[in-house]
Each structure stands twice: as C-alpha cells, then as structure tokens.
Design brief:
8 helices; 303 residues; 13 strands; two-stranded antiparallel ribbon; Nucleotide-diphossugar_trans; alpha/beta; Nucleotidyltransferase
Length: 303
C-alpha cells in the first residue's frame, strides 16, 4: 500500500510576513514544497493532500498545486476557523482570528485519507532519506494498525539564527517515543547556548535533544485518538483567541494513554526552512547547492 503525504499548508506566516508556502526558492519558480513532494514521490508515496486556507486558493493553484497535480495524484482541503465546530462553538469563538492548530488541520483532511500517511510542515525541508525511511515503514502497515512512527532530528540541526523556533522535545526509550512536549519558543542565547521559554520559566537545553519537526507517520487509526483530543481541547478552549491544538502534544498523549506506539526513526540531515524573511536567502542557497551537486535536477518537474 502506497502511503499518502499530508501537507500542513494553512499557516498564517505571521513571522515570515507572507504566504511562505508558495514563495519561490528554486531556479524555475519551485517552492520549498515542490522539493518535498518530489522527494516523497521518489520514495514511493502515491498521493499528496494539502491542507490550505480558502483565501490563498487561487495563488496556491497558480504557483504550486496545478504543477504538482500534473506530476502526481494530488488534492487539497480547506482548514477554516469554523471547520469542525458546532454552532455553539462558532458563536463562542466569534473573536477567533485564525484556525486552531495542527490537530485541527489533520482532522479537516480525515475524509480524504484512506492509507497510512506522513505529515509534514509546508515550510520545512526534511531531506530525502526521511521520506525513504518513513515511507518504507508505512508501506508495511494496515489502515487500522496502532503502530506509528516519526523521524526525529537533533535540536541543534533544526535551529534558526533568525529567531525562535517551535519544536516538540521527545523522550525516547528503546527506540520508541515515551513522551513529547511542544516547546513553542526555543532560541539561542547571547552566549550561543539554547534556551526554551516555557510558561513556568526557562529550560536550558543542550542541543542534542531529539525533537519533532512534525514529520510523523500515522495510520488512519490515529484519527480516533486525535478526535478525542480535539473534542476535549475545543470544549476547554473555545473562547480562546490564539491557543492552538498541537500535534506533538496529542501524539505524546496517545502514547501515554496506550492508544498507540510511535517508533522514533532518526535523521542526521540538517533542517532548513522558511520561518523568518531572512531564511529565504539561506533556503535558496541550500537548494542551489543541491541542484549543483546533482541531488536535484535543474528543472524539478518535466511539465
């Protein structure tokens, strides 16, 4: 069974200052997502599903989707701030300005996912080996399997010099995830150290921690746990204007409750991505180097 690639592409891009999901970084107008989808196709994925906002649909099709769809089975779904909400929840969240986070996004795509699937962020570059590892793992699973997986990265390989990043800090035992907590503001200190600013205070980190980059592999069975997590979240937070329902926290709870296991695969690839405006030049340079080395063809797609 060929796995599906599920792309989280409905972000607001507030720190980047624009729609980074469709910003060109390649030599022929390719976006960072083009390279991720290309890597997934090379790794044997059979379909890609994008989760987007309604307001970017026209530009999304023009700058990315129509090109992808000519080269791979592809579709997209919308995530809005009222998706999946009851009438009462819509009324209670009237002041909400944006969608509800990554678990909410996944559930918006539930009806179009019928195979094991990999989740990725639209603005992150993961490296082809990660798709190969996770694709091979998922291809052996049935749709109702409770075994899942993720590709973990070393924190110091995922930091940005342009500002803070959000990462799920993982605890791993015997190759399996035992817990994961989303740290939403990790940054370098003035002396080159790394610190995570949490609600209770600052945690000093070594940089060697295993972190989640939202590169997960799930079977459709995981949606059952995520539905329960979402229901509890929206019940408690429907009046919140900014709080988000996050995938790393939900995945960690699924493991702790014994509803599924998550094998932690590892990648030594260096992450790069489009979090801040200053990151674009770095991404373009990294992509050019990979093209110059022959890792990617100069023109990614034939049509």
């Amino acid at each position: 069974m060929k796995p599906t690639l599920l792309v989280l592409a409905a972000g607001m891009g507030s720190r980047y200052g624009g729609v980074k999901q469709i910003d060109a970084v390649g030599q022929h107008g390719e976006t960072l997502l083009d390279f991720g989808v290309y890597d997934a196709k090379q790794a044997g994925y059979g379909k890609v599903v994008f989760i987007i906002r309604e307001d970017i649909e026209h530009d999304f099709r023009e700058r990315l989707f129509d090109r992808i769809a000519r080269n791979m089975d592809a579709e997209y779904v919308f995530q809005t701030k009222t998706s999946l909400l009851t009438d009462r929840e819509v009324r209670d969240s009237v002041n909400r300005k944006k969608p509800w986070g990554t678990i909410h996004a996944l559930l918006c795509a539930r009806d179009v996912i019928d195979t094991p699937f990999t989740v990725i962020n639209a603005d992150d570059y993961y490296g082809r080996s990660a798709y190969m590892q996770l694709g091979e793992y998922l291809s052996k699973l049935s749709v109702d399997d409770t075994n899942h997986a993720m590709v973990g990265y070393m924190l110091e390989n995922t930091m940005s010099k342009s500002g803070s990043v959000s990462r799920g800090i993982c605890t791993v035992k015997d190759g399996k995830l035992t817990s994961m907590v989303e740290n939403t503001k990790i940054e370098y200190t003035a002396d080159g150290g790394i610190v995570s600013h949490m609600d209770y205070g600052d945690d000093v980190l070594t940089g060697k921690e295993t972190v989640s980059m939202n590169f997960f592999g799930f079977t459709p069975k995981a949606f059952e746990s995520f539905e329960l997590y979402w229901s509890d979240f929206i019940r408690k937070n429907r009046f919140e204007e900014k709080k988000e329902c996050l995938l790393p926290n939900a995945a960690g709870l699924m493991v702790q409750k014994g509803e599924g296991t998550i094998d932690v695969l590892t990648s030594q690839d260096k992450w790069f991505g489009m979090t801040y405006p200053e990151d674009k030049a770095i991404v373009m340079s990294e992509i050019k180097a990979k093209i110059d080395s022959g890792y990617y063809p100069e023109k990614l797609w034939e049509k």
